[in-house]
Design a protein that fits this description.
The structure holds 2 protein chains of 2 kinds. Chain A is mostly beta strands. Chain A has 4 helices and 20 strands. By secondary structure, chain B is mainly β. The chains are: A mainly beta, B mainly beta.
């Protein structure tokens, strides 16, 4: 059986909030290393890969592989009943038809308990190869969100160009064009303000801004975001959490003219 | 206008 206790419900609330507009029905695949989710959006353009490591829970117990088939709209309805600071416990049997969730207020004067019906989801799994990306950019997640939102006001697509002079986000729209160029920032006092660019070769790829703006809903999970880019392969947008947990989004590039 | 690509072109189904 699964028993997983989170010190603060807000971790799961934020993760589900960040992905529920991209994917609706998906399996939480549980085993002794944690809770994983991999799901593509309906158009097969974006992929969500979540890993909540056992280390992010206290305690975490799951002695065999358990697939928890969830509708994220339903899960959101239940999670809305949890306060951010509540202690959240997930429980499921080995072949579950429901997921038990309890929310305990931190001063323990209130315990809420919900059982959520599960679905049998036959999910496609994609093999994601380990990739040495040509460019890895680490930046404040709020900055990335601002760039994507600002450019989406002008255009459907953004071209991300990483070179020795920095990283340039450029768009062309009906009303005109725009671009934002970022250079390396080293803020010793506040490392989360750093912009780091690791480059092995220049890259230039075009992506749909609609999806990038959607990924930015994960902004609350981490103060920094990492973009991994190589020519002609999907972009990886990564939000790292404590305990080695992460939320990753993959986005297929736009090609041709 | 560039064409939106499909992720399945890059990642094999397993």
């Amino acid at each position: 059986m699964l028993e997983a206790r989170l010190e603060q419900a807000q971790l799961l609330k934020k993760v589900v909030d960040a992905i529920k507009d991209l994917v609706q029905d998906c399996n939480f695949d549980c085993n002794d290393s944690g809770i994983a989710l991999q799901a593509m959006d309906n158009s097969h353009v974006a992929l969500v890969s979540m890993m909540l490591k056992a280390e992010s829970f206290n305690p975490f117990r799951c002695d065999r592989n358990i697939a928890i088939g969830l509708n994220l709209v339903s899960l959101t309805k239940v999670l809305r009943a949890a306060q951010n600071e509540d202690i959240l416990t997930l429980k499921a049997e080995d072949a579950p038809d429901s997921l038990n969730l309890t929310f305990e207020s931190s001063d323990k004067d209130r315990i809420s308990e919900y059982d959520l019906k599960l679905m049998d989801i036959d999910q496609e799994h994609l093999g994601i190869p380990d990739t040495d990306y040509s460019a890895t950019i680490s930046m404040p997640s709020a900055e990335f969100k601002r760039i994507c939102t600002d450019l989406m006001a002008m255009s459907e697509s953004v071209t991300i160009e990483a070179g020795k002079d920095g990283i340039k986000f450029a768009c062309n729209g009906d009303i005109g064009n725009g671009s934002i160029t970022l250079r390396t920032v080293q803020d010793v006092e506040n490392k989360e303000n750093n912009i780091e660019i690791a480059l092995t070769e220049p890259v230039s790829l075009t992506f749909s801004l609609k999806y990038l703006v959607n990924f930015c809903k994960a902004q609350n999970l981490s103060k920094t975001v990492k973009l991994h880019i190589s020519n002609e392969v999907p972009l990886l947008v990564e939000y790292a959490m404590e305990g080695g947990s992460y939320l990753r989004f993959y986005l297929a590039p736009k090609i041709g003219d | 206008t560039p064409i939106q690509n499909d992720l399945s072109e890059y990642f094999a189904l397993i």
